[in-house]
Write a structure and sequence with these properties.
The protein has 196 residues and is α+β, with helices and mostly antiparallel strands. It is built from 7 helices and 4 strands, in the order βααββαααααβ. Strands 2-3-1-4 form a 4-stranded antiparallel sheet. A hairpin with a 4-residue loop joins β2 and β3. α1 crosses α4 and α1 packs across α7. It is globular and about 45 Å long.
Length: 196
């Protein structure tokens, strides 16, 4: 139970003055935080770990994954459910997030699924293609390119090496990454309750 502080900023980008008197959120936001124990790496090693984890996120948490379908059909998640990975030289983590009326059920489903998950080569290939597509799509946005390359430089990563590193990532690499990263011991659930 650590305290998590959130800052909400509301900007008026319109022509008319606007005033926010009250913000109500009726569905609690749930965050599952999975810390990464493999830190203090830089450069190409960081890029490889980022790719492996992004592939895993696609395999485990995408809208086409069995876990997503199961929880969505049981109405414990909505389409806000998703996951992302953040990497830095000193820390990295996977954040699984979304809105749910029963965040504990979401967390329990994730833990149970990960405990018994059988990663398939077919899912690996689909997620791998999605990760590559996301990387290529980034080049449609100068803001995304600038942000990712600047963050990369600050962390000793050269995104011009992305393609050969991406091509070197194997299904075996992804399975090893899964076993090290996605464990109950590395995870915590945080729930942000809204007003009824």
């Amino acid at each position: 139970g650590a305290v998590v502080e959130y800052t909400i900023r509301v900007y008026n980008e319109g022509q008319v003055d606007g005033y926010v008197e009250e913000i109500k959120d009726h569905l609690p936001d749930q965050l599952e935080f999975v810390k990464d124990n493999e830190t203090n790496i830089t450069g190409d090693e960081m890029i490889k770990k980022e790719i492996e984890t992004q592939i895993l996120i696609g395999m485990l948490f995408s809208k086409s994954s069995p876990l997503y379908k199961k929880m969505y059909e049981a109405s414990i998640i909505n389409d806000s459910f998703g996951a992302q990975y953040s990497i830095n030289e000193r820390y990295s983590y996977t954040l699984i997030e979304g809105e749910s009326k029963n965040a504990k059920a979401v967390y329990d489903n994730i833990i149970d699924y990960i405990k018994d998950a059988k990663l398939s080569l077919e899912d690996y290939k689909a997620a791998r293609n999605s990760v590559w597509g996301g990387f290529v799509k980034m080049f449609n946005s100068t803001e995304a390119v600038g942000y990712n390359f600047a963050i990369g430089i600050l962390n000793g990563m050269d995104y011009f090496n992305y393609k050969p590193i991406f091509e070197s990532v194997t299904f075996e690499d992804v399975k090893k990454r899964f076993e090290k990263h996605f464990t109950k011991e590395n995870s915590v659930l945080s729930v942000v309750e809204g007003e009824e």
